[in-house]
Amino acid sequence: MTKEDKLILDQFQCEYNRVLEEEFAQLIAERNDLNLFFINENQAFTDGRNIIIDPAWNGLFADEQALKDTERFLMLDNTISGDRWLALRMSARAQNIHEALHIIYSNFPCAAFEDIRATCKARCVVLSLISNIIEDAFIEAAGCSEYDNMERFLLWHRVALYFSNTPSQGTVQRALAETPCQTEEDQSKTEAIVRYLNYMCIFLLYPMAQQDPPDDDIEPYVTQTKHLFQEGAMCGNADKRYSYVQKIFDLVDPIVPQGEDVEIQTELLAHMLSGSKTHSPLASSIIEWESTGKTIQVKRNLFKDEKGDSISFDELKQQLADDIKVFSSQKYAALNILAYKGSSTNFIGIDFDCDLIHKGISIQVQKPRINLNMKTAYQNILNNYSLSISSYNARFSQLLKGTVDVKEDRLLFGSSIVSKHLGDVKKRYWSRSN
Fold first, then answer.
1. What crossing angle do the helices spanning 151-163 and 314-339 adopt, rounded to 10°?
2. Positive or negative, the Cα torsion across 273, 279, 282, 283?
3. How many CB atoms lie within 10 A of CB 108?
4. Positive/negative CA dihedral, 113, 118, 122, 125
5. pTM, entire model
6. Cis omega (within 30 of 0) on the bond before 254?
7. pLDDT (tens digit, 9 = 90+) per residue, 237-261?
């Protein structure tokens, strides 16, 4: 990223945008207790209550070639690739929707953590990765089946992941080969299971990709489990979906490593899943949230319509054009807040009507720089004192509508004479009440 890219990223990750995404996620998930945070760690995940996203995932917002390839695939113009801010918004919104759908439809914590098959960390990781692949495919199918306004973001997310720069599979395999404390058998199994998981991930989540036939040693496992991945991704019940995970694991058990010291490093797979912490046994949270995913009937998957035909991108183009108008207005609102330095205004009483009763009054109004980090604190103050505020508002309203008598003297005409001023040579001894 260039210095300008880093500045745009810093501006984008302001509290205004974080609150926008958090409120959007709360609306989707119908959860007021849901929290959302921005990070810069190339990961997006949820623990069932908190959503963590990286708007700059893998530097995608600054990768013009990947963005243009994504636009070309989705038959869009180059509006998004030409605006770093819009690219960040699309990435943040897409990740947000993806994780919010997990909160709605996935079980937390992942059942792999308690599965009797998970006799060691490596086996638990394999179980959770199989679950992650199926859950990702399912929540994308659920999102475009149940919601009218999500398909375009889910498509953008999946296609952009496909076109973004990825580490080569060979690099991952070399890293595995160099992992210490593994027997030759475990090394062979580890390398095989990673190739198998990579293959199945691309098969299920990236149907636009043309894969070579699987290697001979994993080909039987691919053949036996393909239909299970497809059926699991269309199963609307979270518990039943996990039963597909168990069936798949039992079939690939011969290539799952057993050793306690085995380390499965799945950089490529994590990249294709844009992070795998949501279902990872290695993820940690201060509090573990337990929730049961909602059951629905899935009608289609992300890249097919209800008849099983490839979807048309014509409607997508118009919907995204409308989204971009909204995102552009939000961009200027955020930039205005960031640019606002505060103000100070002084009001002098004699500059207003009835200056006699305002004489000597000076009011200084200071508006500090907006700090949206304090939004929750300010809202709590309002909630705690709303009754008192309403009471004072009513009293002030009555006072402003009331009348006050003011006596003026030393006048040439009036309603009464002030005797002490009778000696005034200019005959200003009259007074009156206003």
1. 90
2. positive
3. 21
4. negative
5. 0.79
6. no
7. 999 999 999 999 999 999 999 876 7
